[in-house]
Amino acid sequence: MKYIENFHDGENISDIYLVKQMSSAVTKNGKPYVNLILQDKTGSIDAKIWEPNSAGIEDFEVFDYVLIYGNVSTYNGALQISVQRARKCREGEYDPADYLPMTSKNIDEMFARILNYISDIRSPYLKQLLESFFVADEEFIKAFKKSSAAKSVHHSFVGGLLQHTLSVTDLCKYLADAYPMINRDLLISVALLHDIGKTRELSDFPENDYTDDGQLLGHIVMGYAMVSEKIAGIPDFPQKTAGEIKHCILAHHGEYEYGSPKKPAIIEAVALHHADNLDAKLEIMTELLASSQGTDWLGFNRLIDSNVRRTSE
Amino acid sequence: MKYIENFHDGENISDIYLVKQMSSAVTKNGKPYVNLILQDKTGSIDAKIWEPNSAGIEDFEVFDYVLIYGNVSTYNGALQISVQRARKCREGEYDPADYLPMTSKNIDEMFARILNYISDIRSPYLKQLLESFFVADEEFIKAFKKSSAAKSVHHSFVGGLLQHTLSVTDLCKYLADAYPMINRDLLISVALLHDIGKTRELSDFPENDYTDDGQLLGHIVMGYAMVSEKIAGIPDFPQKTAGEIKHCILAHHGEYEYGSPKKPAIIEAVALHHADNLDAKLEIMTELLASSQGTDWLGFNRLIDSNVRRTSE
Amino acid sequence: MKYIENFHDGENISDIYLVKQMSSAVTKNGKPYVNLILQDKTGSIDAKIWEPNSAGIEDFEVFDYVLIYGNVSTYNGALQISVQRARKCREGEYDPADYLPMTSKNIDEMFARILNYISDIRSPYLKQLLESFFVADEEFIKAFKKSSAAKSVHHSFVGGLLQHTLSVTDLCKYLADAYPMINRDLLISVALLHDIGKTRELSDFPENDYTDDGQLLGHIVMGYAMVSEKIAGIPDFPQKTAGEIKHCILAHHGEYEYGSPKKPAIIEAVALHHADNLDAKLEIMTELLASSQGTDWLGFNRLIDSNVRRTSE
Amino acid sequence: MKYIENFHDGENISDIYLVKQMSSAVTKNGKPYVNLILQDKTGSIDAKIWEPNSAGIEDFEVFDYVLIYGNVSTYNGALQISVQRARKCREGEYDPADYLPMTSKNIDEMFARILNYISDIRSPYLKQLLESFFVADEEFIKAFKKSSAAKSVHHSFVGGLLQHTLSVTDLCKYLADAYPMINRDLLISVALLHDIGKTRELSDFPENDYTDDGQLLGHIVMGYAMVSEKIAGIPDFPQKTAGEIKHCILAHHGEYEYGSPKKPAIIEAVALHHADNLDAKLEIMTELLASSQGTDWLGFNRLIDSNVRRTSE
Amino acid sequence: MKYIENFHDGENISDIYLVKQMSSAVTKNGKPYVNLILQDKTGSIDAKIWEPNSAGIEDFEVFDYVLIYGNVSTYNGALQISVQRARKCREGEYDPADYLPMTSKNIDEMFARILNYISDIRSPYLKQLLESFFVADEEFIKAFKKSSAAKSVHHSFVGGLLQHTLSVTDLCKYLADAYPMINRDLLISVALLHDIGKTRELSDFPENDYTDDGQLLGHIVMGYAMVSEKIAGIPDFPQKTAGEIKHCILAHHGEYEYGSPKKPAIIEAVALHHADNLDAKLEIMTELLASSQGTDWLGFNRLIDSNVRRTSE
Amino acid sequence: MKYIENFHDGENISDIYLVKQMSSAVTKNGKPYVNLILQDKTGSIDAKIWEPNSAGIEDFEVFDYVLIYGNVSTYNGALQISVQRARKCREGEYDPADYLPMTSKNIDEMFARILNYISDIRSPYLKQLLESFFVADEEFIKAFKKSSAAKSVHHSFVGGLLQHTLSVTDLCKYLADAYPMINRDLLISVALLHDIGKTRELSDFPENDYTDDGQLLGHIVMGYAMVSEKIAGIPDFPQKTAGEIKHCILAHHGEYEYGSPKKPAIIEAVALHHADNLDAKLEIMTELLASSQGTDWLGFNRLIDSNVRRTSE
User: Fold this and answer.
1) In this predicted complex, what is the ipTM?
2) By Cβ atoms counted within 10 A, which residue in A38, A61, D22, F232 is the most buried?
3) What is the pTM of this model?
């Protein structure tokens, strides 16, 4: 496959790309045409269909995978494709992994480790709660495996939510072992559940954008609601524990200014917040360093709030 | 009835008071005694039962109304009662209004006005939602009528939640009339619902303190959960409207730092937040001015964040 | 009239436009020309006079209304006019309402309602103060009717100050009725006066920009000074009331960070600040929603400090 | 004279003290008595007149200087005077300097230096403005010489405003010489005028507390108003300069959070703000160090926002 | 030994206590006496020597361990000792562990684990740097083993610095294993070194208070200086690595407002900051929970910035 | 010399310019070329060497002074040079003052004034410390004379550090004379030393950018380290004074948020911080006003945090 990052002026292309955006427009002299943005995992490019009603242009929609014939030229300093023919492809003609950012880890292996954590939970109520999501709820499992952990900040790729959840849970397991005051079952449980609201806050890839409820309510409150609903379905779930689980989810951003309506008040909430923050910050640094080269300073990063540098050998 | 604010050194008292706190203690030479705090609507006073096992001291508990025989003396500069006899009273022997801070307005009249607002709602779904609380849910109605709107800040009296809710709704009706972009049905509905979480955040009078879930979750999220549950029980409730109602409740404190996990994003949420804040601030000023005299400066008030003064005639 | 928003490449225009900006320039080969920005109420457009000394180009200045003959072309992706002839117009040849953003309400009716409020004031001193502005001061009245309430934030159109003042006063009347601790006469008076400094902070339309004193002093202090001067001319004006009026004006932004040198310390100042803020926020939302379409999210708004959405039907 | 800081239990005193506070009270058995706080420049002490109607107790009021006969005893761990006789004294019987905190510098010499600065001003308008205060306005001059520069923070003694003004002006003269962009006449003028509002913000010694207008308006705006009024009385005063003077006064606290409604926008306003702040901070340190001994750390000081230490020799 | 927390009114005591404070005073009638504060690991108590020159009162100083004969009485509501005899004790007569807060872990075992970490370092320069402190510098080792990690916030006991350092290093080892971008040698090294400035910022127990340089410079900069000095003594130490080590120490508080003059700019500095913060927060929670009982809310904690609760079983 | 600010389209140039940046690139059809940025003291311009391997193009590097033959054209609205010939020049062929921003004052005269200050110091230890830098350390003196005081904010020209240091010291001398509590020797010494870390934080002109250690450590800590090292070499340097000097340097930014790890705790540190800030702010205003014309408002300045205006005559 010819990746977009390798396109150059003057060449012809004939390969499958994902349609990220599509809109109709009219030229100055009144002729309709179509604006596209095509995407693969290496980047995106503008494309124009100047003859939308011609024979070679078949019907397709945003987020379809489309076989594009066209040629590349430069316009206003950027490359652009004039599309001569376009045909919507069927699943199987393409590998989505070529079009979407994807975790470098194995999704099934990661999910197996999640299930392992659950099998180690001793409290029958907490185990039942976790299984109601990660074992019994097919739809949830499918969404959880695919979701990113963020729109753009960190882990913004397919499998990102799973990878982040596992990484936070690993760290929480370490903390539960190192600090005896921590209730291990509770901390592991809330680590596994803390970001499940993201399966509904963000739409599926390739869109991966905030949903309407995502913007109106946010993943913290949405995850709280999902957990509350499952708990309500478990007979005799201890009320105190229910309050603590919900509190840990509501407080996991640690500060009001980051959208937590409560600040951590129990030790597991304190631990979860810091584990979440620590994984996020180290993943941001990791992605930053992985996407750059050389040992120079990499410029100011808003999330780290500092100019950032690669460590010398 | 002899009110606590009128007690003085040396007098004997024999009247019914509310037991606000009670604890056992031991004197230096090993004799057990009981510490009490007695309360009526004019104030509170320390009391000691030096002979807890004597004939005249019958069994009672915190928040009981107790007939106290004793005499008042001064200790360390403050008045104190030595209790000689104590007997728990039955409902009917006393008027709770003498012991609890109470709204000066008529609770039933206020509640009737709430129902009036509901009957004016045109959207059948919103009306059904409101009725599921204010008409159909006996337990909720009972709690709603009794609750305060806060532990201490403002409207911290029986009926305070009802009074505040009505006052905010009145103002929201004004705003819906004055600003045509506002959806009147939606704004009136969220005004009526915005603080219902307080029925669970604070325990009943005479305690009126934060519940465990109140501290762990907060009334904003608790109210959101209560509304979500009722909406889930209404067939075909429009999903967009559901998101907007929930958003208005989550955002009604207006700022992250005041515990709102979301900031107002639709015009009704903006209006509700400001109406809530305006009523709170004017009620704080009203209570401050009502509880003081003279035209001098009243000192710094933390909530108004200024030294405060009564307006001249 | 041909409005600017309807111009397109290649057409000839011959209509009257307001000259918003004008500057002289020299081409690379040393030939002088003139840069203009022309404006009507639908937008603005660049224009060039390539032959400034030719016969058809008569003298005019910034903020003149000028009859323009020219043709429209595209340069660097934007439309532009090459001006062939230009003639300054006299009052009467054009309707200023076609060139300036203008309130959609009737200015005289709004002003009549202001006078109505004044006639209801019972305090003779307050009435005399208000009349010294709104009845006796011709120059003030003329400026007050024309002013915007802001350079760009909200109510930034002719009549905007009048509309905002009336809207705040209406809300204050509601508050004075609803909260008995409020001194109605005082609150209505300061509502009417709170933004009068804006008649001097901003220059007249079509400029509508900060004056020198506007930037050095600000409308809060300028309004305070205007009121102080009028009060000084009213015999026996009660000193306490004078202090309270001045305080309400100085404190009406509510917070130091918004330029108020004092925070509200009396209940009328608290009410005025919140009424002013509430009207501003609801007008911002109203203008935002009115200027957009569809039910999608409208993007982040700096003043609302949130991504903003239209409410569903 | 016997100073209050030297009183001890059991001694009799018969000397003149200032009555700082006075209130009537009633003993438990209904007998009226009088509470006093007496003050001299070394401190203050509680006093009681147990027989207010007895022969030796003559009439006096708060802030009178009163000859007190009484004896000192200990009550609740603090010293207290039982007053047997009391007589109001006439001016001449006492030296106010014994009762009020007072600048250690010579007031007349300091004022002469102020006049010297004025005589060096070259701009006739600025000179006229300064003279309208410091030469022509007897009442102002009297108040200016007596005022403190603050209720308690720094320079809170008779002559403090004069001393602070001179110190800031000296520093501004240095700056005008060192930085050629500064307009010397303008900076010296606003240095002399920047705090004149304090003559009205604070009441006279011995009270030295905020006046009603002081709290409602603040010295920044009051000083601005005083200057505006005098400028209005000077024919042909240049309008630009008037705006700049007013701006420097309004902006001299430098930040909104310190009550400046504007931030410094011209170089003289920048210089004035920093000179004012620098003198305040160094005077705070000077007073702190002067009032303590030893080389140990002196504890946390809120204004310096640090634990503070004396420099080693 | 009779611990201070068990004292009661009227009993005689004869045991050894640490003298935490000592000062001379004079009674009202001119008789000299001595004020003491005595301490053991359970608390502290006021003591008075009314006859400082009597036969039984031998010489001793602050921080001596003194055998006290006296009797306990109540004064102003608190217990107090009247000392009849006092004799300074020699080392061996008492066990300092009875008088000082002490880590519950074994100091030598903890230190052995530190050395273990050092032996695993592969970089010869980093190993040499660490050995210059933890192997070669006797004085440093002695101080490091004894120091607390703070005056009062957390780990404020003998061995606290060692315990905190080890805990942070353990966590950093976990992070170095879990996040491959991290340079393990560098992160372990700076974890071991990050708080060594505390050996000079705080004086030894029993005082454990800020030193003069501790207050003037702070442990961050002091630790930086200690490391810089050792690095300067190691030939050919890589300059880039030296800068990174120093940066990690300077940035380990993560934010300017917590006294870090730089914010973390390399991934190891990010990891160290979060590991340090996480251990501090979990130790604060652990100490809080260990020092209280019951499952009630424990009240507001300033460092956690929340009301805090024990987790239910 | 033909300065860059005077270039215009179409002319040929043949003069010496400083090469500020240089990078290789490839055209679309694979032909290598070189991008340059050329600079003189009036500005900078893009240049292209389309034939890098042609005869007239000799070898040179970034920061070389190069004789350029080329012609000026317009590309994308900006001027650009096509370089035909280029030759590296030797020292002597050009005057660096034509290429670098340079103080308008005489460097040697300023340095002589520094030495004068040192000769007036009475404390032998402080004098020795200052001489160890300003008399004995050739390398330091050379760097100190050349350094700017900042990358871009203020005094960002050759000699800027010297000019700023002298200006702050002059002001500190004034303060030491005016405020008797100040230790003159100490304040003058730390004024001279406060910014010496900038000789290592910023690289030499023409680069004048942050060094690696500059970014990792910052000039505050670097200056502290430089002073500590020199003090360690002076026998018997008083320890208290050493702590105070180091503290003044560490605290001279005054606030944590500006990178000071300590806040000023002694009066000399307070004075130094304010003197440093005052000179910076007045120099910013001076440079702003000097680089503009007219009396209009100059727009918002981030460092002054206000829209800024020139003062009227």
Assistant:
1) 0.85
2) A38
3) 0.88
